[in-house]
Amino acid sequence: MQWKFGILFFLSVSVIMTTSAQESTWKTLAKITYTKQYDELMGFKVDVPVFSEDIMAMEGQIIEVKGYIIPVEGYKSHKEFIFSAFPYTMCFFCGGAGPETVMDVFASNPVEYSAEQVTLRGKLELNATDINRLMYALTEAELVEESGTN
After folding, report:
1. pLDDT of 103-136, one tens digit each?
2. Does 150 reside within a domain?
3. Alpha-carbon gap, residue 138 to 136, rounded angstroms
4. Would 130 be classed as within a structural domain?
């Protein structure tokens, strides 16, 4: 009986730690400030992200992040898409959040669109120089199969 409780406790803690880690990923990515910098191509000053030490430590690391696929017709595919901490109606592109809440995703295999929250795993890349790209990119991304889903 005790070993069953131990296994259940371990599994519960595992699930809580994984969920907490995924939620804290977006919280960590939100630890960003900006500086104004003149952009020669644009001809005016633009906001340039300044990544915190916590974010810099994540660069190049494999991370798991839970969020929503944002459908962008004609621009991205099932292997390249935008991923958001928030559902479509609240995402950055709809005016409900900041640019730190979205990332480009470059998946190893196609990821089917879902309006439900999904978990992705991949390598985090940071971008502070190319204003035509998002600040964050998840490369070599894969859909994490959640337990209990079919």
Report:
1. 999 999 999 888 899 999 999 999 999 888 999 9
2. no
3. 7
4. yes
Residue matched to tokens 């939100």: 30
List the domain range (segments joined by +) for residue 10. 2-143
pTM: 0.77
Instruction: List the one residue out of 58, 37, 53 whose CA is nearest residue 130.
Output: 37
* Secondary structure E strands in the chain: 32-39, 44-51, 62-70, 80-84, 102-107, 118-126, 136-143
Q: How many domains does the chain have?
A: 1
Element (H, E) at 129: none
| CA count, 13 A, side-chain hemisphere, 19 | 9
Pairing state between β 102-107 and 136-143: parallel
